[in-house]
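Thread: "does anyone have the structure for this chain?"

Original post by V.I.:
We have the sequence but no experimental structure in hand. Need at least a predicted one for the grant figures.
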Amino acid sequence: QVQLVESGGGLVQPGGSLRLSCAASGSMFSINDMGWYRQAPGKQRELVAKITIGSSTNYADSVKGRFTISRDNAKNTVYLQMNSLKAEDTAVYYCNVKAVRLGVRFNYWGQGTQVTVSS
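Reply from O.Q.:
Generated one for you, tokens below.
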């Protein structure tokens, strides 16, 4: 089992910044892709950004140029730096980790952290 601990959500004014963190822990697992998804009220969960083990990144068009995903492989931690936040970025943000253990692939989700952008 991989445990994911998210932090960094909160309330911020439009134009502000927040940094989300997600630390993964679990014995005998290899962490592969890591990413962030979000779900706004009444909407489906959507990909925000993801990063491979080799640090290749992919972003949703709506956040390109404003959000940056990064990872620290030594700490099994993924970060999401969110700048120039807009009201439409308000959502619950979920960390996602793909891991492998003894040749079997697993997909894990964090508990979610609320991001609210409002004046």
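V.I.: this helps a lot. The chain has a mean pLDDT of 95.
O.Q.: and The longest strand covers residues 91-101.
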